[in-house]
Design brief:
Layout (H helix, E strand, L loop, with lengths): L4 H14 L10 E4 L3 E2 L5 E6 L8 E6 L16 E4 L4 E6 L7 E8 L11 E5 L6 E2 L4 E2 L3 E2 L4 E4 L4 E2 L6 E7 L3 E3 L4 E4 L5 E10 L5 E11 L8 E8 L10 H11 L4 E5 L5 H9 L2 E5 L3 E5 L3 E4 L3 H4 L3 E9 L4 E9 L6 H7 L4 H11 L1 H11 L1 H5 L6 E6 L25 H8 L3 E2 H5 L38 E6 L2 E9 L21 E8 L1
Helix pairs in contact: 7-9
Amino acid sequence: MRHLLLLLAAAILTATALTVPAHAAPDGTLSLGSATVKPGEPIKLTYSTPRPHAKNWAGLYTEPGNGPAGEQYVGPSLKWAYTPSAAGEATLPTDGLEPGDYVVYLLAQDGYAWLAQPVRLKLVSAAPPHFVTSPFTLRNGRAGQPYAASVGGLVKGDTTGLTFTKKAGAAWIEVAADGRVTGMPPARGTAALTVEARNSAGQSTAAEISIRVRGSGQPLVPRLNALSWNLWHGGSQVSGAREKQLRFLLDRDVDVVGMQETSGTSARELAESLGWDYHQAGADMGLISRYPITARGPLPSQSGLAGVYARVRIDERTGRELVLWTAHLGYTPYGPYDACFSGRSTRELLSREAEAGRTRQIQEIVAAMKDQLRAAKRSPVLLTGDFNAPSHLDYTPRAAPSHCGRQRVPWPTSTIPEEAGLRDSYRVANPNPVAKPGTTWSPLYKTFTGGYGYDDRSGAPEPQDRIDFVHYAGKLTVEASDAVVAGTPRPHPDHRDNEWTSDHAAVLTTFRVN
């Protein structure tokens, strides 16, 4: 929520870059002390340019990722440092970064014009190879139809020369050296599989895997686990985040995810590791799916919306699809702070919601969903997201003590979807807000740290609210819904080694697909 200031800063940098004159050809040099670096060790670089400037800089990005490949802003850098001299040296830290491929750019004047050709490097782990979790389940298959999935991205540690082999399992399953899992299941049931991964040093790891095989006349996905997840700058605030995120998704048997704060690459990186489909929708939002994505909605930069959608095929036999949305609404002014830290009336709270842009944003998203909602009986619709606002369903008289005495606040970000025919899956499963508050903000922040015009309330209890949602329309039945984390998160600022990689709880809803 509060950490979108970085995205605003990125937008300012974008505007700055657009004012720079036409880009000169990169006429400098950039080299690295080593093409391989271990996470935690600094990246040492040497540079030169005939165009020195106090605001020239070096930026580190994932490769492929959101670096300025076309000399224009795509997404924020992971690490950066100023390189002001005509020639010199600089270092970039690697704390919190995952092993993998990266690229360093030497860029001009707080912008994105290249001063030299970019150079690539690899962050390598010294840890033995290991599957991120075991056991776990792959996507569903169908009897008599070709099956394909992958475990190739689910091993972390030293993966140099990594190869996969089948050690045990159903006769129909084949495992390729790159981790592809294929075959033709002959009958319905649950197929078991043991896969071993071995690196060039001879170190190995194994995982127990299940595949649910559906009959020829059965729905491919009878139950769907849908997740709304604010990643908190892609998880970069917690050590080893990517492995922890993969473990969480597999352990929870998630099928589709609407993400916020992806830092421009997380949806793609997670999906590629899982062998899933994805829609990386710019620097902020993303969608990933265990099942095929058949269409991708316009990027927010194209639509002007604070949301994005994709169509997911959940049954190849019938062609049935669902429409998966994610949204990330404006974060300031923040309603619970106004409700708890000021004497504003309910009418003034609603005026502040409009001031934050959230009212307009949810109206625009719901308007864009109009045709999809009309067709929801045929293709169910999910709206996930971090709305940065509570629900009117939570502000009941009995729950008022949990909300600074406030009750019956018709928060527009929840009333507008409801009026459009969407239902709040968490409140369908848990109708009593006193017994099941479903708090998602925040498992980490328990004390208000200031800002938002309320510096005088610094040190007060942080208002705890449910601001992340999985709404739905169509032929779906809610079987369960929970606000979920992994492990027991330690509060900020002692969060670095948490198993949970976000400052929000996620919302996980299990639907029966009717």
